[in-house]
Amino acid sequence: MYNEMGGEDALVGNVNKLMVTPPGYTGPPKKGHIVFDACIESGNLGRVDYISEFEFDLFIRPDTCNPRFRVWFNFTVENVRETQRVIFNIVNFSKTKSLYRDGMSPVVKSTSRPKWQRLPAKNVYYYRCPDHRRNYVMSFAFCFDREDDVYQFSYCYPYTYSRLQHYLASLERRNLDYLQREQLGLSVVSYCMFAHCVTAHLCCVSGVSVTFYYVSIFLYLLCTAHSFSLRGRTHVSVFKDE
């Protein structure tokens, strides 16, 4: 059983092409039997409960090394029916204060409309729910308009590991003499983490030239892996006399 407070029995895997049907249904899949998938980069969705044809309770997975933190969600849905209206309830947020209370709304895109757009704030509700231990729940309403599209919903605009690596690779291709890159270690999911040293020559009052190293560690923080392990070098000097 899933523990909404994020205990030891919390879910550890994302849903993978999960078709949610009415309880007891044994017939062939139909349009409108929504298929949920969070096995995507930066994805997070651990469980889906069928409430009705129009409503689903969604449980997000906690951080890997701190089960009390449950904020990020990112998932896709498909096999929808045109004009199908749904309400998705994110039922196990760990934060009591959220920008969703002040007008922020989730983002959505689809295969035919690949640019992220915010949902209308009037369709988003953040409230204490008596059905879920009076935890805060974020509910949003949505109407699907294209049956062949795959829709993706996210807490906010995702910044994926691949996008970060693409940007860092573009910096390396410029062969900047004041930029150095060094691998510090691996995350708990074996993604590389790098330190980028940006140097600038400064002149002291005494006339001694000093090189200042600004160390910027670009960490890709998976929503389920905020904690990480370093293997190898863990100390970086920030000043060097010449």
Detailed description of the structure:
The strands form 3 sheets. Strands 1-2-5-11-7-8 form a 6-stranded antiparallel β-sheet, with no helix packed on it. Strands 3-4-6-10-9 form a 5-stranded mixed β-sheet, with no helix packed on it. It has 2 domains: 18-154, Immunoglobulin-like (Sandwich), CATH 2.60.40; 161-241, no CATH class. By secondary structure, it is mainly β. Residues 1-9 and 213-242 have low confidence and may be disordered. It has one helix at residues 161-172, and strands at 18-19, 35-37, 47-52, 55-59, 74-78, 85-90, 107-110, 113-118, 124-129, 135-143, 151-154, 179-187, 192-203, 209-218, 228-229, 239-241. The longest helix has 12 residues, at 161-172.
SSE map:
Elements: E1 18-19, E2 35-37, E3 47-52, E4 55-59, E5 74-78, E6 85-90, E7 107-110, E8 113-118, E9 124-129, E10 135-143, E11 151-154, H1 161-172, E12 179-187, E13 192-203, E14 209-218, E15 228-229, E16 239-241
CATH topology (level 3) name of the largest domain: Immunoglobulin-like
The 3D shape can be described as globular
Instruction: Report Rg.
Output: 23 Å
Most strands sheet: 6 strands, antiparallel
Question: How much is the average pLDDT?
Answer: 80
Q: What would CATH call the architecture of the largest domain? A: Sandwich
SS elements, strand count: 16
If helices are DSSP runs of H or I spanning 4 or more residues, what is the number of helices? 1
What distance separates the N and C termini?
A: 62 Å
Strand-residue fraction?
Answer: 35-45%
Report the structural category.
mainly beta
Q: What's the number of domains?
A: 2
